[in-house]
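Example 3.2
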Amino acid sequence: VQLQASGGGLVQTGGSLRLACTASGRTFGSYCMGWFRQAPGKERELVAAISSAGGTFHDTSVKGRFTISRDSTKNTWYLQMSSLKPEDTAVYYCAVAVVPGVMFRATAYDYWGQGTLVTVSS
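Structure, written as tokens:
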């Protein structure tokens, strides 16, 4: 299984970006697709996740600004990021957990993408 993340870049405070992650190599039955981020010197944290049943999670730090969605026909999920802040600067990773429900811990995820850098300038 390969996960290919894209869409990162440099944006000014208040700007928007859309990250995409495409999975190849297999199709998933029950799963959870997540977006994590890791800033320098900090632990990797879950930003948002979506389960195969359609349940979603958004961390309080991004709620109302970020939205996770998916296109099952393309085995792709997205993270729409708006009203970006400098503290959103991080490497963003997509991941898949081959289990039902929303998974919160990084250790629950089976497959990881390579990461895409998001830099928000002040």
